[in-house]
C-alpha cells in the first residue's frame, strides 16, 4: 500500500525540485488529470521556493484526502521564518520583495481549490491548500 | 547538469529535456548569451516540448533570456509549450507577453526566418 502522507524538508535549492516530484507523483496516484498534476506541481514549486527564499528552511506536508465525500490532495507548507507583515499585500498580484514576478501566492490560490494562510511575525508562516479530484 | 546548445548555421537550437531547477536555469541563461556572443548567432529556438512544469521563477528566467538576447541582437522563439503548462502559467498570472512563440520547432524556425527577413 502506498503511503497516505509524505513530508519534504526544504533546506536547499534542489529540495524545490524534490517537492515538485513528490507533488506530481502523489497527484498522479490520486487520479488527477494531466493539467491538475501540472497545477499542483507548480503550486508546490511556488510554496517551496517561498520557504527557501524567505524562511531558509521549512517543510511541505502532503496528505491524501480519501473519504466518502471527496478525494484529493492536501498540501501544507510550514516554516518558522520571519513571518509576513501584511498578508493583504502579498496576496496582491505583482507584489514581490525578491525581484520575482510577484505571481507566487495569489497564483497558488488560483491554481488550488482551497487556500488558507496564517502568519505571525517572528514565528513563521503556515499555508494550507487543497485540490480535489473532480 | 548543463543544457546543451546546438549551432545550426546562424541559429542556436536548444531542447530542454531535463527538469529545470533554479541553478540550471541561471546557468543556461549565461551559457546561451555566451554562445550568442561567440557564434554570432542571429536566431535562437528554445524548445519546451519536454518541459512539464514552468513556475514563476523559470518563467522569469525565460522571459529575461529573450530580452537579453534581443539586446544583443539575436531573436529568440519559444516553442512547444504543452497545453497543461500554458494553462498553469496563465492561471498563475504569467502572460509572457511580447515573447515570440510557436507551436513546434518547425514553426519556430519559420517564424525566425520571417522575423529576420531571411
Automatic annotation (TrEMBL), chain A:
This is Serine/threonine protein kinase. Gene3D superfamilies: Histidine kinase-like ATPase, C-terminal domain (3.30.565.10). Keywords: Kinase, Serine/threonine-protein kinase, Transferase. The lineage of its organism: Bacteria, Bacillati, Bacillota, Bacilli, Bacillales. Coiled coil: none annotated. It comes from the Bacteria. The keyword Amino-acid biosynthesis does not apply. GO terms for molecular function: protein serine/threonine kinase activity. Residues 36-129 form the Histidine kinase/HSP90-like ATPase domain. It holds the Pfam family HATPase_c. It comes from Oceanobacillus caeni.
UniProtKB/TrEMBL annotation, chain B:
Residues 1-112 form the STAS domain. Transmembrane segments: none annotated. InterPro entries: Bact_StressResp_Reg (IPR051932), STAS_dom (IPR002645), STAS_dom_sf (IPR036513). PROSITE patterns: STAS (PS50801). This is RsbT antagonist protein RsbS.
Amino acid at each position: 500500500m502506498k503511503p497516505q502522507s509524505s513530508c519534504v524538508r526544504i533546506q536547499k535549492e534542489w529540495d524545490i525540485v524534490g517537492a515538485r516530484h513528490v507533488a506530481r507523483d502523489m497527484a498522479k496516484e490520486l487520479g488527477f488529470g494531466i493539467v491538475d498534476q501540472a497545477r499542483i506541481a507548480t503550486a508546490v514549486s511556488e510554496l517551496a521556493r517561498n520557504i527557501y527564499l524567505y524562511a531558509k528552511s521549512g517543510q511541505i506536508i502532503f496528505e491524501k484526502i480519501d473519504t466518502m465525500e471527496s478525494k484529493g490532495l492536501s498540501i501544507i507548507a510550514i516554516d518558522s521564518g520571519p513571518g509576513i507583515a501584511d498578508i493583504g499585500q502579498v496576496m496582491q498580484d505583482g507584489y514581490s520583495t525578491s525581484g520575482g514576478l510577484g505571481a507566487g501566492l495569489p497564483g497558488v490560490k488560483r491554481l488550488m481549490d482551497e487556500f488558507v494562510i496564517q502568519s505571525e511575525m517572528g514565528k513563521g508562516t503556515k499555508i494550507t491548500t487543497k485540490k480535489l479530484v473532480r | 547538469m548543463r543544457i546543451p546548445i546546438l549551432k545550426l548555421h546562424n541559429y542556436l537550437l536548444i531542447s530542454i529535456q531535463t527538469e529545470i531547477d533554479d541553478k540550471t536555469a541561471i546557468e543556461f541563461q549565461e551559457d546561451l548569451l555566451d554562445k550568442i556572443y561567440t557564434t554570432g548567432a542571429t536566431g535562437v529556438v528554445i524548445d519546451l516540448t519536454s518541459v512539464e512544469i514552468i513556475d514563476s521563477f523559470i518563467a522569469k528566467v525565460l522571459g529575461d533570456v529573450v530580452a537579453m538576447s534581443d539586446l544583443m541582437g539575436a531573436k529568440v522563439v519559444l516553442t512547444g509549450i504543452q497545453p497543461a503548462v500554458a494553462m498553469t502559467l496563465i492561471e498563475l498570472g504569467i502572460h509572457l507577453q511580447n515573447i515570440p512563440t510557436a507551436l513546434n520547432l518547425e514553426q519556430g524556425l519559420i517564424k525566425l526566418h520571417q522575423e529576420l527577413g531571411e
